[in-house]
Specification:
This protein has 7 helices and 14 strands. The chain is of the alpha/beta class. Strands 1, 2, 3, 4, 5, 6, 7, 8, 9, 10, 11 and 14 form a 12-stranded mixed β-sheet that branches. A two-stranded antiparallel sheet has the order 12-13. The longest helix is centred in the C-terminal third of the chain and has 17 residues. It is globular. The relative contact order is 0.18.
Length: 301
């Protein structure tokens, strides 16, 4: 038996009591309905997308990270969204680096609100990060974000600890990657997120373990980083949230090529997760598909 299978079987036994299956059918839109209310959000496998709003680029391979829009990602089973906001004239527009994605934060939140209204058993983890240069503002990033929270009242869950799923069904769990004076304002990942490496953020009631090696020298090294965190998640504490970014880019003469990485890594993910079971953490992908998302969330059952 391989180490992967041993770890997978061990993790399945450890988490079996926390995950409750019912006789009801479920779909990609409501798979969280099959998980008991008492299960901590960190104790399951969750499919996610990197740069979730990045569907546009003017130069191939340099900015586009997803083929599916936000609403379609959620319907496909994605439950972690990585949202990059530029503070532009006291409102948020979605960027990947300097590239405007023809999308604004209202579009993202409306899609999430509509989805959760139709699928109240689900929850969405949303990483919010400030992206690119602010322009024409009289308000700070934090102030503008709080105004969105007020507009979309009761949509966000903003405590600083990792919740049980029953406490956040129908909600967006904020993972904050921007500095703020307001406390609590979500799971605080505003500092300690290592650049191009694997890192740990830990404070009272919250531990995040993050693999985000995005400058890819070789796909084999990237894959090793991914599978290393998978192994940690399979055997690690259920109260630690593992965020495993399978995304990245390979630079050719200074020009990034995102599909060069995702084409290889997504194929490896498909093979690796096929038939797997156990807690693999949050798997955050470029060019996620419904099939890949299903392979991730099916490891819970």
């Amino acid at each position: 038996m391989t180490l992967k299978k041993v770890l997978s079987c061990t993790a399945a036994l450890l988490t079996a009591a926390a995950i409750s299956l019912t006789a009801e059918d479920y779909t990609s839109a409501n798979w969280m309905s099959q998980i008991s209310d008492s299960t901590q959000l960190s104790a399951i496998s969750i499919p996610g997308t990197h740069d979730s709003g990045a569907t546009y680029e003017s130069v191939y391979g340099t900015a586009k990270c997803q083929s599916l829009g936000i609403a379609d990602q959620l319907e496909a089973g994605i439950r972690y969204l990585d949202i990059r906001c530029r503070n532009y004239e006291d409102a948020f527009v979605i960027h990947h680096g300097s590239v405007y994605q023809h999308l604004n934060f209202d579009d993202v939140l409306t899609a999430c609100r509509n989805f959760l209204s139709e699928n109240p058993t689900e929850t969405i983890i949303m990483s919010v990060k400030e992206e690119y240069d602010a322009y024409g503002n009289s308000k700070s990033f934090e102030t503008v974000f709080l105004e969105y929270m007020n507009t979309y009242s009761n949509l966000f869950w903003t405590h600083s600890y990792i919740p049980a799923i029953g406490d956040v069904r129908g909600k967006i769990v904020l993972l904050r990657r921007f500095s703020a004076a307001t406390w609590p304002l979500g799971l605080n990942a505003s500092s300690g997120w290592g650049d191009n490496t694997t890192s740990t953020i830990s404070y009272s009631n919250c531990t995040l373990r993050i693999q985000d090696s995005y400058k890819v020298g070789s796909n084999s090294n990237k894959w090793s980083a991914i599978t290393s965190l998978f192994s940690e998640a399979l055997s690690g504490s259920s109260s630690t949230m593992y965020l495993n970014y399978t995304s990245g880019y390979k630079s050719f003469l200074g020009i990034p090529n995102i599909p060069y990485v995702s084409n290889t890594i997504n194929s490896k993910l498909s093979s690796y997760l096929s038939g797997a079971s156990g807690r693999y953490g949050t798997v955050i992908m470029d060019f996620a598909t419904a099939d890949l998302a299903e392979l991730v969330y099916e490891t819970n059952f």
